[in-house]
């Protein structure tokens, strides 16, 4: 375990991969078993980070460059970690987070053209040891993901955010970058084929998380017996 006694699971992927639907389904499935689940998201998840979210997604920081944006994402992440995620893990909760540090590696690092060292240094400061136990990467061909995201955008008044607006080629690069991270960190990362049915994806995710949960729940049994 990287942190406390809970379990820290992050969801990652490009646009239109179905992360939000799947994270909600996983939270429901775990809660139905009586487990204590915290569902959160980035950028945001704490009052300080939500204030920065608006600055980033509206594009207000875009004119100041990708470095500035990367530092703002990291500042928001650190607040979220210290105010919400670390305390929840210490309380033994299962924390499910929609996007986390890999989004910065991919969006700011790879497609924002920032040096890997700069991004890694920022991430170390931002997460300060709170590294996900398990990261589910929802993988979808960029074109298909974009089509789905556009349909969703058309259905909401907001339209595409600052990072959704970019070209197909950029989305392809992000997909490759996620697959590279998964290849480099196979213990932590699982790539899920997000073109499957919603049901099939949900079942695959639950099976993966169950395997991660088993040792955590076993560790707690002696405590339960002593109560
Ligand atoms: P959000 O509305 O939460 O959408 P999504 O459904 O795509 O997760 O928007 C978050 C946007 O911010 C998304 O386009 C990815 C981007 N982002 C980064 O560029 N870097 C980061 O570190 C994070 C967390 C998000």
Record the SSE blueprint.
Elements: E1 7-13, H1 19-32, E2 37-41, H2 47-57, H3 66-90, E3 94-98, H4 101-110, H5 116-127, E4 134-139, H6 142-155, H7 168-184, E5 189-193, H8 198-226
Parallel strand pairs: 1-3, 1-4, 2-3, 4-5
The chain binds thymidine-5'-diphosphate (TYD).
Thymidine-5'-diphosphate is lined by residues 15, 19-20, 41-43, 57, 73, 98-99, 103-104, 107-108, 161, 163-164.
How would you explain this protein's 3D organization?
The structure is a single chain. This protein has 227 residues and is an alpha/beta fold. It has helices at residues 19-32, 47-57, 66-90, 101-110, 116-127, 142-155, 168-184, 198-226; strands at 7-13, 37-41, 94-98, 134-139, 189-193. Bound molecules: thymidine-5'-diphosphate (TYD). Thymidine-5'-diphosphate is lined by residues 15, 19-20, 41-43, 57, 73, 98-99, 103-104, 107-108, 161, 163-164.
Q: Which key features would you list for this structure?
A:
8 helices; Rossmann fold; 58% helix; binds thymidine-5'-diphosphate; globular; 227 residues; alpha/beta; single chain; five-stranded parallel sheet
The fold-level CATH name is Rossmann fold
Structural class by secondary-structure content: alpha/beta
The domain count comes to: 1
What is the H/E string? EHEHHEHHEHHEH
Stretches where pLDDT is under 50 for at least 5 consecutive residues are none
Beta-strand percent range: 5-15%
Ions, cofactors and other bound molecules: thymidine-5'-diphosphate
Indicate the overall shape.
Answer: globular
CATH class: Alpha Beta
Q: Give the total of beta strands.
A: 5
The overall average pLDDT, rounded, is 93
The total count of helices amounts to 8
CATH superfamily: P-loop containing nucleotide triphosphate hydrolases
- CATH architecture call: 3-Layer(aba) Sandwich
DSSP helix fraction: 55-70%
Largest sheet: 5 strands, parallel
Distance between the termini: 23 Å
Sequence of strands across the biggest β-sheet? 2-3-1-4-5
